[in-house]
Amino acid sequence: MISDPRTWDIPLALGTPSPDLVASILLLFVLWVARMIVVKLIRLRSDLPPHVLRRWIATSRNVFLFLLLLGLVLIWAPQLRTFALSLAAVAVAIVVATKEMILCLSGSLMRASTRAFAVGDWIEVSGVRGEVVDHTLLGTTIQEFQPNSFHYTGRTTVVPNSVFFTAPIRNLTVVRDYTFHSFAITTEADIDLPSHEPQIASIVERHYGPLREEAERANARIERRSGVDILDPESRIRFSTTDLGKARVTVSLFCPTRLAETLEDAIMREVMVLFHAARKQEPAGDASP
């Protein structure tokens, strides 16, 4: 006779899930939902500049990632401790193999502890100049500037955080709005530059004069913020020569960053016209008795 199927002893094919695994999945889900809510609330702040919004979003992501890692370590601590004790040699090999990753994590910790920069700051590190658009535990993304200017090239560079231990970090945020801008005008050595200094100063003053008061206020703000005395916001004209014996005029201005190249172009054009006129008059002067 066939026995009653209800009395058959059938072993369970599926085991009970591990409490640690359930806790890990629950932690991941809670943090993911919380981050989505926080990011949505940040994006609703239309009164904030874009670089501030990017900074807050990047910071929130890194905070939630740190909480996830911390939670997983606490949940799996007993298993990790047993694994580490049983595989000490393997752990040493892993450390050696992941040295660069450890350096990147340490560089991220150093950046956070020293507050060297944040998302939206202008920095220069390891020959790369630009605006920080994102940073993670392993790398920092920089929107590059063109050489000798503050115009974006459209390229982005990801710098590993390990670079922060070997290269100095220059924070250029203080010159986001105003900067000390210098440019040189080179001409032939047969022009008497000192005799033309009043005319050059007049050209510089005509273009820089309307910005002087605003530059003085910005200069005072920077001094209060940094706590050090910087150069006065006065235009400066210096004469020198090049290695090839050419005459050179160097003009230095403390001006709005957005207008630096415009001022340079306008002043340089008029000074070059002045030098061209002076060179045309020079032969006539030499021929006179």
Automatic annotation (TrEMBL):
Protein's cellular compartments: Membrane
Keywords: Membrane, Transmembrane, Transmembrane helix
Entry-linked InterPro entries: LSM_dom_sf (IPR010920), MscS_beta-dom_sf (IPR023408), MscS_channel_2nd (IPR006685)
Gene Ontology terms for molecular function: mechanosensitive monoatomic ion channel activity
Membrane-spanning intervals of the chain: 21-38, 59-77, 83-105
Keyword Signal: no
Protein name: Small-conductance mechanosensitive channel
